[in-house]
């Protein structure tokens, strides 16, 4: 064989067939086995629901003078205005809140869609804003949080049952009745000629900024009650909770279980 023929037959080390190691993340290389995992990852990203945009929904309501909050809602009540209700927050969550008036009571609760929520679904926070000329009663059931600007009437009734809270900035009434059952909390301000404060369980009533003439306090459990009175104060502590009453009121105290009571001028 000629020298030229041998040269053509031998592969050129410089220009011969190129062999490249395929990168791990390119098709044809060792990374081909990783592609199914990558596809599953991208598919999972597509299945993650996007957060709904914020929305505000206005609900047409008739007149009401009492409210009942059934569930873990944040509610703000402004008195001295025309009746109205708005729901703001996550778009999907606002559609699952039911606001309706039955008789003279406005009720905030979960709609039919709200009860069908699947495990693992997360909704954004929802704020319910209510307006009304006047309010004489407010009830919180469950874990709701309610703030009220003012309540003016001959008699005012407020209660919390469960782990919720109620804050009344300014009461103006002849008779105020406040009850907390469970682990809830309540704060009261303003004026009341007479007030009756009752707790059952570890709940708390803070009426230290409520100006009261004659006061009645009942504690059954390990809760805490703070108040002040100018005229008289009758305190019954049937549990191990604590009661503190400031002011010049003449006090009558009963604490058979030994729960601590501090009152202005206690008498046997």
Describe the structure in brief:
This protein has 268 residues and is mostly beta strands. It has four helices and 16 strands.
Mean pLDDT metric: 85
Radius of gyration: 34 Å
Overall domain count = 2
CATH topology of the largest domain: Pectate Lyase C-like
- Helix percent band: 10-25%
* CATH hierarchy: architecture of the largest domain: 3 Solenoid
**CATH C-level label of the largest domain:** Mainly Beta
- Outline type: globular
Number of helices: 4
How many beta strands in the DSSP annotation? 16
* Sheet of most strands: 16 strands, mixed
Low-confidence stretches: 1-7, 12-16, 20-26, 29-33, 115-122
Strand content of the residues, in percent? Answer: over 45%
Helix-strand topology string: HHEEEEHEEHEEEEEEEEEE
Query: Span between N and C termini?
Result: 132 Å
Given the helix and strand composition, which structural class is it?
A: mainly beta
Structure description:
InterPro entries: DUF2807. It holds the Pfam family DUF2807. It comes from Sphingomonas ginsenosidivorax. Residues 64-247 form the Putative auto-transporter adhesin head GIN domain. This protein is mainly beta. It is 10% helix and 55% strand. The chain has a 16-stranded mixed sheet that branches. The radius of gyration is 34 Å and the shape is globular.
Strand and helix map with partners:
Elements: H1 3-9, H2 35-47, E1 54-59, E2 66-70, E3 74-79, E4 84-90, H3 91-94, E5 97-102, E6 105-110, H4 112-115, E7 126-132, E8 137-141, E9 145-148, E10 151-161, E11 165-181, E12 185-200, E13 204-220, E14 224-237, E15 242-254, E16 261-267
Parallel strand pairs: 2-6, 2-8, 3-7, 3-9, 8-10, 9-11, 10-11, 11-12, 12-13, 13-14, 14-15, 15-16
Antiparallel strand pairs: 1-4, 4-7, 5-6
